Amino acid sequence: MKNTHVISVENLTKVFGDFFAVNNISFHVAKGEVFGFLGANGAGKTTAMKMLIGISKPTSGEAMVAGFDVKTHPEEVKKNIGYMSQRFSLYNDLTIRENITFFGGIYGLKKNDIKKKSQDLIDELNLHEEADKLVGSLPLGWKQKVAFSVSLLHNPQIIFLDEPTGGVDPITRRQFWEMIYREADKGKTIFVTTHYMDEAEYCDRVSIMVAGKIEALDTPKNLKEQYNVASMNEVFLKLARNLE
Question: What pTM does this model have?
Fold first, then answer.
């Protein structure tokens, strides 16, 4: 793994009224790293990610993503990343093929490239029979797999995944992580939020957010040794107790 930082965050803060949703967080992510952004629901993970992908302006602090300042060049950030939201990723009233074509156009791909990438994606996921079915008819796990693949259409070097495995079964979760590893092996950087603590074991490093602050950041192995426990779930529980 190279030491080049593709995400650099210094004292990043987001305030709504007098509520600190994200409170003075700092961290760096290296090129090719699978970086887990962990925390319970409401810890501030999604708010932080929205700042990093250029759709929410920080109240204060600095963040550089893919070489661009998220405050002054949010559109350049968006062009250079892939993003998959838990709540909205694909249009349910379009077919898989139509979704691929639509998002390929948004990403600025040429028609021939869209056509080739569409077929490559359908072949890779073995969706030949489903390609012309409405996305709304697909099981959630398949929707998420397709959404992840669509976020890669323009070959971004950084991929942001917001709770990508929320609500899917354990087998699909494992398959999804296999897809993540394949992209990481190609040198892509994966920034993934999750509240499933067992998924932290799949990451190179993890941060744990509690009430808007990063309270722990290290490799899963080092965190388990630090807290003298056997699992990341126990790390989180012990950390939460220590902060009470």
Answer: 0.90
